[in-house]
Amino acid sequence: MGRRGSTLPGWAQWALASGIRGAMTPALAIGPGAALAAARGLAALYPRFSPKRFQRAVDNLAHAFPDQSDQAHRALALASYQHVFQLGVEFAYAPRLISQEAFARHLVFTEIGQGLRHMLGDKPVLLISGHVGNWELLGYSVSMLGFPMHAVYRPLDLRPLDDWVRHARGRRGLTLVSKFGAVRALPPVLRRGEPVGLVAD
Questions:
Q1: What is the end-to-end Cα distance of the chain in Å, rounded?
Q2: Most buried one in 41, 95, 107, 155, CB count within 10 A?
Q3: Which pLDDT score, from 0 to 100, does residue 54 have?
Q4: How far is CA 45 from CA 39, 90, 155, 156, in A?
Q5: Between 32-44 and 70-97, two packed helices, what is the crossing angle to 10 degrees?
Q6: 70-97 and 136-144 helices cross at what angle (nearest 10)?
Q7: Which are the contacts of 47, defined by CB distance < 8 A and separation ≥ 6?
Q8: Taking Cα atoms as reference points, which of 146, 145, 156 lies closest to residue 180?
Q9: pLDDT at 77 over 90
Q10: How far apart are CA 127 and CA 60, in angstroms?
Q11: DSSP character for 18?
């Protein structure tokens, strides 16, 4: 299966990708605390701008948690969108804060002994997670510990933006492997004993 990608011409993709990267500038300028607060505030407005999508989330939560009230479903849906908006801020800050010099000030590692033992062993290692917390930081964290981490991902439709993301991750020792072709690309990685991460949901 080939990569789908955007149908926009190259110049339009470049312009749109530049606009998206430029939109990160205010968040980076005001500091992480203020940027996270602003993200929560913007997320609170989301139901007004996309009521159908928000209601779909509420309906899905009603099926998942039938014993809870509609008010609880709406509160959880809003909290989920706030989390996603804040994730965008953390995504923007990650290349700046998660470096070999600074990661120890921003990351806390707990209960990783068993995983480390496997990664230090002589057998292939697959690290499997779901879309929980800030899954973007999982691969970053492992690469900061000195392991040449590979993570399977879906390439972004905008190729210039995808190139930027892969380059930014690669500078920190995290290699992104497209899910289109990962079956062929990963076996040599595993044979070398390098860990591979999958977000499996």
A1: 19
A2: 155
A3: 96
A4: 10, 20, 29, 26
A5: 150
A6: 30
A7: 54, 78
A8: 156
A9: yes
A10: 28
A11: H
E strand spans, the chain: 126-129, 149-153, 174-178, 196-199
Instruction: Check whether 188 has a pLDDT greater than 90.
Output: yes
For 125, the token pair is 């290692």
Looking up tokens 């972004």 gives 156
DSSP character for 174? E
- CA dist 33 and 36 (Å) reads 5
Please enumerate in sequence order all residues whose Cβ is within 8 A of that of 54, keeping only pairs 6 or more positions apart, or say none.
46, 47, 77, 81
DSSP state of 172: T
Q: In what order do the strands lie in the sheet with 126-129?
A: 126-129, 196-199, 149-153, 174-178
pTM, to two decimals: 0.77
Contact 70, 62 (CB under 8 A): yes
| Average pLDDT rounded to a whole number, residues 17-44 | 89
> How many angstroms separate the Cα of 38 from the Cα of each of 31, 90, 109, 151?
11, 13, 28, 30
Structure tokens at 109: 């590692």
Q: Are 197 and 129 in contact (CB under 8 A)?
A: yes
Stretch 150-162: mean pLDDT: 88
